[in-house]
C-alpha cells in the first residue's frame, strides 16, 4: 500500500500532489546548484586576484607588477584601444578578406569533385602546419604596413571557413535532396533553397573561429613587424621591461578578443534563430 | 547468369552440376570484383596524376615568380634548397630544439588537461565554475601571452614549453570533460547494478568511452602546441626554427626563412600524423568509432 496523506484524497489528486512536489524539489535543487556555482566563481576570481597580489608582493615589479600598478599603466594611456585603432582595422579587414575567400572557395570546391580531389592533400597539410609561421614571409613580400598584417590575419581566418563551408554544403539530408531532385529542381535551386541552409550553422561556427583567429593573426603580425598596435606594444614593453604596461596591454587585448568573440557568437545565434536552425553538434 | 540460380539439390545429376554452379558463381563474382578493383585503380591513378600535375604547376609558378622578382622577395625552389644546405647546421639544431619544445609542452599540457578534465567531469559544480574560463579561453589569443611568459621564464627552452603546455591543456581538458560525461546510460546502469566501485566505473567505462573525444583533443592539442612554440620563438628569438626565421628575416636572408619554414612544415606534419596514427591505433585497439569532430 502506498502511504496516504489523507483519506479524502483520490488517487489522481495524490499523483498530482507528488508530481508537483517532485518538480518543486527539482527547481529548488537547480537553483541551489546555480547559487553555489555563482559563489564558487566569485571565490575563484578573488583567489586569482589574491594570488596575483601575493605574487606581486613577493617578486620585484619588473617580473610581476601588481593589480594597482597595472591599472595605473592602463590609465597612462598608451595601451588603450583608441590609441591603437590599427589593431582593430587589421582584425576587421583580415576577418572580412579571409572569410569571404574561405566561403567563396568552399562553395567552388563543394560543387566540383575534381577541385576536391586536387585540393584535399593541401587542406590536410594546412591543418597540420602552423600558418602563423608564414608571417615573416608575408611581411617581406607585402611590407611593414597594414597590408601584411591583414594578410596574416586573413590567411589563418581563411581555413576554418573553407573547411566548414565544404562540410556544411556536403552534409545535406539525402531525403530532402531526393525530393527536390524528383520535383525537377535545378542545381542552382537545390543550392539556394537547400544546401545553403544546411550549411549555415557550420558556416557561422566557422565565422566565430575565424574572428578569434583573425585576432591571433593581427597580433602575431605585429609581433614580427610592428611599430604600431597592441601586439607591437606587447613586444616593446617586453624589450624595455615595462612590465606593468605589458600587463595592461594584455588586459586590453583580452577584453578586445572577448568582445570580438561575443559579437561573432551573438551574430551566429541571431541568424540561426532567424532561420530556425540548430547550432552544429560541437 | 541464370545458371547461378539453379538449386544444386534439385538437379538429378547432383554433384557435378553443384560444383559447376559454385564455380560459375565464383567466376562471375571474381570478374565483377576485378572490374570494380580496376575501376577504382584507374580512378586513383587519375587522381594521383591530377594531383602531381597541380603540384608541378605550383612549383613551376613558384619558379617563374622567383625568376621575375629579386631573391630577397621570393627565393625559388633551387635557392631555397641552397639556403637549406648553407644554413643546415643552424637549422638542424633549431629543428631539434623546436621538436623537443613541442613534445615537452604537449606532454605536460595533455597530462594536465587529462587529469583536470577527469576531475571536472565528475562534478557539476566544478564545471559550472570553470565554464566562463573555458569561454574566455576560446576567445583570448593565447599567443598574446608569449611576451609575458618570456619575461617570467627567460629566453631559453622553458617559456616555449610553458606556452605550448598552456595551449595544449585546454582542448584536452574540454574534450576529456565532455567525453567522460557523455556515457551510455544503460552501460552506467549495468555497472551500478553489478555493484562496480566508482573507480571501476571510471576506468572501465567512462575513460574508455571518452577515448574518441580525448584522441580528437590530442590532435587539436598537438597543432596548438606547435603554433605556440613557433610564436614564442618569434618573440624570444634565441633557439628554435622560429628564431632562425626571425634571424633570416632581420638579415633579409629570405632563402634561410623559406628553408626554415620548409623544415618547420615537416616537423608540424610529422607531429600531426603521429597524433592521427596514435588516434587510429588506440581506437582500433579498443574497437571504438572515431569522433566526428
Give structural notes.
The complex is a heterodimer of chains A (282) and B (293). Chain A is mainly α. Chain A has 2 domains: 1-58; 74-274, Orthogonal Bundle (MetI-like fold), CATH 1.10.3720. Chain A has helices spanning 11-58, 67-76, 85-111, 113-128, 135-142, 146-170, 174-182, 187-224, 230-239, 243-274. The longest helix of chain A is centred in the first third of the chain and has 48 residues, at 11-58. The radius of gyration of chain A is 27 Å and the shape is flat. In chain A, 37% of the residues are buried. The mean pLDDT of chain A is 85. Chain B is 81% helix and 0% strand. Chain B has 10 helices and no strands. Chain B has helices spanning 15-68, 77-86, 88-122, 124-139, 146-153, 158-181, 185-193, 198-235, 241-250, 254-285. The longest helix of chain B is centred in the N-terminal third of the chain and has 54 residues, at 15-68. The radius of gyration of chain B is 28 Å and the shape is flat. The relative contact order of chain B is 0.11. Chains A and B meet through helix 1, helix 4, helix 5, helix 8 and helix 9 of A and helix 1, helix 4, helix 5, helix 8 and helix 9 of B.
Amino acid at each position: 500500500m502506498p502511504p496516504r496523506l489523507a483519506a479524502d484524497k483520490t488517487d489522481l489528486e495524490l499523483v498530482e500532489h507528488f508530481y508537483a512536489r517532485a518538480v518543486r524539489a527539482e527547481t529548488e535543487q537547480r537553483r541551489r546548484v546555480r547559487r553555489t556555482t555563482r559563489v564558487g566563481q566569485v571565490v575563484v576570481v578573488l583567489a586569482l586576484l589574491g594570488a596575483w597580489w601575493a605574487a606581486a608582493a613577493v617578486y620585484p615589479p619588473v617580473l610581476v607588477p601588481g593589480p594597482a600598478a597595472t591599472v595605473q599603466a592602463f590609465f597612462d594611456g598608451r595601451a588603450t584601444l583608441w590609441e591603437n585603432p590599427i589593431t582593430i582595422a587589421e582584425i576587421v579587414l583580415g576577418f572580412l578578406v579571409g572569410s569571404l575567400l574561405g566561403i567563396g572557395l568552399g562553395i567552388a570546391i563543394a560543387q566540383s569533385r575534381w577541385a576536391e580531389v586536387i585540393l584535399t592533400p593541401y587542406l590536410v597539410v594546412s591543418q597540420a602546419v602552423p600558418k602563423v609561421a608564414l608571417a615573416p614571409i608575408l611581411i617581406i613580400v607585402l611590407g611593414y604596413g597594414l597590408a601584411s598584417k591583414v594578410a596574416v590575419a586573413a590567411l589563418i581566418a581563411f581555413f576554418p571557413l573553407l573547411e566548414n563551408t565544404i562540410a556544411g554544403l556536403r552534409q545535406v539530408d539525402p531525403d530532402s535532396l531526393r525530393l527536390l531532385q524528383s520535383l525537377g529542381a535545378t542545381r542552382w535551386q537545390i543550392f539556394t533553397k537547400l544546401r545553403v541552409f544546411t550549411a549555415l550553422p557550420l558556416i557561422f561556427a566557422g565565422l566565430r573561429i575565424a574572428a578569434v583567429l583573425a585576432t591571433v593573426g593581427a597580433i602575431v603580425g605585429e609581433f614580427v613587424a610592428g611599430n604600431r598596435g597592441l601586439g607591437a606594444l606587447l613586444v616593446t614593453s617586453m624589450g624595455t621591461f615595462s612590465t606593468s604596461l605589458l600587463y595592461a596591454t594584455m588586459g586590453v587585448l583580452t577584453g578586445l578578443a572577448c568582445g570580438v568573440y561575443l559579437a561573432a557568437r551573438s551574430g551566429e545565434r541571431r541568424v540561426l534563430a532567424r532561420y530556425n536552425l540548430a547550432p552544429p553538434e560541437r | 547468369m541464370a545458371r547461378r540460380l539453379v538449386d544444386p539439390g534439385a538437379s538429378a545429376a547432383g554433384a557435378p552440376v553443384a560444383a559447376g554452379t559454385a564455380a560459375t558463381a565464383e567466376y562471375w563474382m571474381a570478374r565483377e570484383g576485378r572490374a570494380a578493383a580496376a575501376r577504382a585503380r584507374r580512378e586513383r591513378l587519375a587522381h594521383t596524376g591530377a594531383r602531381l600535375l597541380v603540384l608541378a604547376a605550383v612549383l613551376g609558378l613558384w619558379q617563374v615568380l622567383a625568376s621575375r622578382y629579386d631573391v630577397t622577395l621570393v627565393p625559388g625552389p633551387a635557392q631555397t634548397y641552397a639556403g637549406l644546405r648553407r644554413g643546415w647546421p643552424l637549422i638542424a639544431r633549431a629543428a631539434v630544439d623546436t621538436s623537443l619544445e613541442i613534445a615537452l609542452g604537449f606532454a605536460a599540457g595533455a597530462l594536465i588537461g587529462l587529469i583536470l578534465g577527469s576531475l571536472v567531469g565528475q562534478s557539476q559544480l566544478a564545471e559550472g565554475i570553470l565554464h566562463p574560463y573555458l569561454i574566455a579561453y576560446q576567445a583570448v589569443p593565447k599567443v598574446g601571452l608569449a611576451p609575458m611568459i618570456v619575461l617570467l621564464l627567460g629566453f631559453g627552452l622553458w617559456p616555449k614549453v610553458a606556452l605550448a603546455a598552456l595551449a595544449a591543456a585546454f582542448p584536452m581538458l574540454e574534450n576529456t570533460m565532455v567525453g567522460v560525461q557523455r556515457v551510455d546510460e544503460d552501460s552506467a546502469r549495468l555497472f551500478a547494478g553489478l555493484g562496480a566501485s566508482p573507480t571501476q566505473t571510471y576506468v572501465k567505462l567512462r575513460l574508455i568511452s571518452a577515448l574518441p573525444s580525448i584522441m580528437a583533443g590530442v590532435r587539436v592539442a598537438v597543432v596548438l602546441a606547435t603554433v605556440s612554440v613557433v610564436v614564442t620563438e618569434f618573440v624570444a628569438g634565441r633557439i628554435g626554427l622560429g628564431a632562425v626565421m626571425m634571424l633570416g628575416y632581420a638579415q633579409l636572408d629570405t632563402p634561410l626563412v623559406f628553408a626554415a619554414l620548409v623544415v618547420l612544415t615537416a616537423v608540424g606534419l610529422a607531429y600531426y600524423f603521429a597524433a592521427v596514427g596514435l588516434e587510429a591505433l588506440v581506437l582500433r585497439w579498443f574497437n571504438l568509432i572515431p569522433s566526428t569532430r
